[in-house]
């Protein structure tokens, strides 16, 4: 398919900014991991990996309303602007309420939650402290995800990039000061994360000065119909984000039984790198999404196909580049997380990293196709794909793989992504065939 220069240029414009923005959203987790590994050793890294899924919960709830709401906004802001003029405000207050509820539950019941997440007697005390502090930021994290998606689709991806990069730089500096300067270790790392969404939201508030702004924020009672419509379209993004947390939980349970806390620490290294890799892939997917939604809303099906096709090319190229980098430099990367020089951690991670990240060849296309299906109002297809990828195939694969030792566990994720990609390509082909039919009908009329 010949892709027009204008589509290629616009996709590049959004993708570059969204990759930077998506990486920024995850960078504080990586900074936490490196600093905690240096300050609290392998046990601190294992503790962080146990709590890590809570960040996926924040992101998933924010994306549930952010991706779905932003897609509705893009599809209607030109043709039916009055229909979506209160959408952001309603979802803002809904998101705030959900965030406060999550914060309350995590502070009232930290031990039961952490036992379910895999904390042991060795890690429980540190995990409770970390969870209680970071849960206070749940509303801010979720509102940050929501607002970034809406502002991006309101035509201001530059601001979202600036906000996320700024929060990343800020949290790294504060992290270092609190952990090493003041000697607060896990408490300092947790406190530093609270600054991250706060800085981002402060910068995002500058969107009120954007000349082409259509977004409005004011008090209004949330309507269930608006929430439900946004949640239906955003549910695939919710499942994609939560699948990372669910897989981390499942990996922790299996690895603890197979090889103990050092295997969890090795997986902590891999999981933290995976957060950045998935963020880069999501950056491409979310860069294509506003263009695909807009062109689909305008019934310009050829441009929609071109945007998705070009996104697939970019995400595949990115996956190859990242894999070659990780394979070539895995030893120094692992060393960054191994302050104590533990040979067992090195042994597990050196084998696991190149096996696990063969997923790169399949994960990027899966995320892009899932997001594109949601962007073109194919909520059921996107939902089916997300369920397969994150749950129905992955979880059995992890537990089946454990019968073949650590190698089987490391390969469970790439095998899941490969099987999912076969279904994803079938769904994408069906979507493109429907576009061609609609193009013919448009020409005939």
Automatic annotation (TrEMBL):
<keyword id="KW-0812">Transmembrane</keyword>
<feature type="transmembrane region" description="Helical">
    <location>
        <begin position="307"/>
        <end position="328"/>
    </location>
</feature>
<feature type="transmembrane region" description="Helical">
    <location>
        <begin position="129"/>
        <end position="147"/>
    </location>
</feature>
<dbReference type="InterPro" id="IPR002528">
    <property type="entry name" value="MATE_fam"/>
</dbReference>
<feature type="transmembrane region" description="Helical">
    <location>
        <begin position="348"/>
        <end position="369"/>
    </location>
</feature>
<feature type="transmembrane region" description="Helical">
    <location>
        <begin position="159"/>
        <end position="182"/>
    </location>
</feature>
<feature type="transmembrane region" description="Helical">
    <location>
        <begin position="408"/>
        <end position="428"/>
    </location>
</feature>
<feature type="transmembrane region" description="Helical">
    <location>
        <begin position="188"/>
        <end position="205"/>
    </location>
</feature>
<dbReference type="GO" id="GO:0005886">
    <property type="term" value="C:plasma membrane"/>
</dbReference>
<feature type="transmembrane region" description="Helical">
    <location>
        <begin position="87"/>
        <end position="109"/>
    </location>
</feature>
<keyword id="KW-1003">Cell membrane</keyword>
<dbReference type="Pfam" id="PF01554">
    <property type="entry name" value="MatE"/>
</dbReference>
<feature type="transmembrane region" description="Helical">
    <location>
        <begin position="57"/>
        <end position="75"/>
    </location>
</feature>
<protein>
    <submittedName>
        <fullName>Na+ driven multidrug efflux pump protein</fullName>
    </submittedName>
</protein>
<keyword id="KW-1133">Transmembrane helix</keyword>
<dbReference type="GO" id="GO:0015297">
    <property type="term" value="F:antiporter activity"/>
</dbReference>
<dbReference type="InterPro" id="IPR051327">
    <property type="entry name" value="MATE_MepA_subfamily"/>
</dbReference>
<keyword id="KW-0472">Membrane</keyword>
<feature type="transmembrane region" description="Helical">
    <location>
        <begin position="233"/>
        <end position="256"/>
    </location>
</feature>
<feature type="transmembrane region" description="Helical">
    <location>
        <begin position="262"/>
        <end position="286"/>
    </location>
</feature>
<dbReference type="GO" id="GO:0042910">
    <property type="term" value="F:xenobiotic transmembrane transporter activity"/>
</dbReference>
<feature type="transmembrane region" description="Helical">
    <location>
        <begin position="381"/>
        <end position="402"/>
    </location>
</feature>
């Amino acid at each position: 398919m010949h892709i027009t220069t204008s589509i290629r240029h616009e996709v590049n414009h959004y993708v570059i900014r969204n990759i930077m923005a998506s990486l920024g959203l995850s960078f504080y987790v990586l900074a936490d991991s490196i600093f905690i590994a240096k300050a609290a050793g392998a046990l601190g890294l294992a503790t962080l990996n146990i709590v890590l899924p809570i960040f996926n919960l924040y992101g998933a709830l924010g994306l549930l309303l952010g991706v779905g709401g932003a897609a509705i906004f893009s599809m209607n802001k030109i043709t039916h602007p009055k229909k979506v003029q209160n959408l952001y405000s309603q979802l803002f207050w809904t998101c705030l309420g959900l965030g406060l509820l999550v914060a309350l539950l995590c502070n009232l019941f930290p031990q039961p939650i952490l036992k379910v997440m895999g904390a042991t007697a060795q890690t429980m005390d540190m995990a409770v402290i970390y969870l209680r502090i970071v849960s206070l930021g749940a509303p801010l994290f979720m509102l940050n995800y929501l607002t970034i998606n809406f502002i991006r689709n309101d035509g201001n991806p530059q601001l979202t990039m600036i906000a996320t990069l700024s929060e990343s730089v800020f949290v790294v500096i504060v992290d270092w000061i609190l952990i090493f300067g003041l000697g607060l270790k896990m408490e300092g790392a947790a406190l530093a994360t609270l600054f991250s969404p706060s800085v981002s939201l402060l910068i995002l508030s500058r969107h009120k000065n954007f000349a082409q702004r259509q977004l409005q924020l004011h008090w209004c009672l949330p309507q269930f119909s608006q929430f439900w419509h946004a949640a239906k379209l955003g549910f695939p993004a919710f499942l994609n984000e939560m699948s990372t947390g669910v897989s981390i939980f499942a990996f922790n349970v299996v690895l603890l039984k197979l090889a103990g806390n050092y295997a969890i620490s090795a997986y902590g290294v891999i999981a933290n790198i995976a957060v950045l890799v998935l963020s880069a892939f999501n950056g491409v997917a979310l860069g294509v999404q506003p263009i695909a939604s807009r062109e689909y809303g305008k019934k310009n099906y050829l441009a929609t196909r071109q945007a998705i096709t070009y996104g697939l090319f970019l995400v595949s190229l990115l996956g190859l580049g990242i894999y070659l980098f990780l394979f070539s430099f895995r030893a120094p990367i692992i060393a960054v997380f191994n302050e104590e020089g533990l040979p067992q951690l090195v042994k597990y991670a050196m084998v696991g990293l190149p096996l696990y990240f063969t997923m790169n060849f399949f994960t990027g296309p899966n995320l892009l196709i899932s997001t594109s299906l949601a962007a073109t109002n194919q909520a059921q297809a996107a939902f089916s794909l997300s369920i397969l990828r994150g749950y129905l195939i992955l979880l059995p694969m992890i537990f089946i793989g454990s019968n073949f030792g650590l190698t089987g566990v490391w390969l469970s994720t790439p095998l899941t992504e490969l099987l999912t990609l076969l279904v994803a390509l079938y769904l994408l082909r069906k979507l493109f065939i429907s576009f061609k039919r609609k193009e013919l009908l448009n020409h005939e009329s």
